[in-house]
Amino acid sequence: MSHEPQDALSRTALGVFRLNGQFLAVSEKLAEPAGLTAAWWQVLGAVLPEPLPVAGIARVMGITRQSVQRVADLLVREGLASYEPNPAHRRAKLLAPTEEGRAAVHRIDPGHAELAALLQRELGGPEAFEETVRVLERLSAALDGVERAGRDS
Question: pLDDT over 70 for what percent of the chain?
Answer without folding.
Answer: 99
